[in-house]
Amino acid sequence: MSIPANLPFSPIRIVDGIAYLSGEVPFEADGSFASSITQQTDTMLGRVKARLEEHGIRMRDVISCTVYLTDKAYFAEFNQAYARWFTAPLPVRTTVCAGMMVDDAAMEITVIARVPA
């Protein structure tokens, strides 16, 4: 599943050597969502990684993440899965509890990354 072309935003913008990713949700290729928080986290961050790599950016170039979870009870499981995707220096991160615009998505993430020279 890809972002419909008629939505009024860009999936990624690169300005002055910084990449700004619009929110990524953890939908699978068929549009479904995994039932576990770990699987949704891995799917979502896999989508982020793929989007960054399309522009020559690696996960180690991520500067900042803002994560939205639908339930604070998901935080520990999410955090454990999230930690596997990054190495030092770790990106800064804000995590908030919020409703989602996409049914069945337990989370969403926005990312800011530097574009390697």
Mean pLDDT: 93
Cα distance spanning the termini: 31 Å
Biggest sheet character: 5 strands, mixed
Query: Within the largest sheet, what's the order of strands?
Result: 1-2-5-3-4
Order of helices and strands: EEHEHEE
Let me know the number of strands: 5
Class per helix and strand makeup: alpha+beta
**Any idea what the radius of gyration is?**
14 Å
Can you walk through the features of this model?
- By secondary structure, the protein is α+β, with helices and mostly antiparallel strands.
- It has two helices and five strands, in the order ββαβαββ.
- Strands 1-2-5-3-4 form a five-stranded mixed sheet, with helices on one face.
- α2 links the parallel β3 (62-69) and β4 (92-97).
- α1 (37-53) crosses α2 (75-83).
- The longest helix has 17 residues, at 37-53.
- This is RidA family protein.
- It comes from Rouxiella chamberiensis.
List the helices and strands and how they pair.
Blueprint: E1 12-15, E2 18-24, H1 37-53, E3 62-69, H2 75-83, E4 92-97, E5 107-114
Parallel strand pairs: 3-4
Antiparallel strand pairs: 1-2, 2-5, 3-5
Helix pairs in contact: 1-2
Question: Brief overview, please?
Answer:
Pfam families: Ribonuc_L-PSP. This protein has 117 residues and is α+β, with helices and mostly antiparallel strands.
Notable characteristics:
117 residues; RutC-like_sf; globular; RidA family protein; 22% helix; YjgF/YER057c/UK114
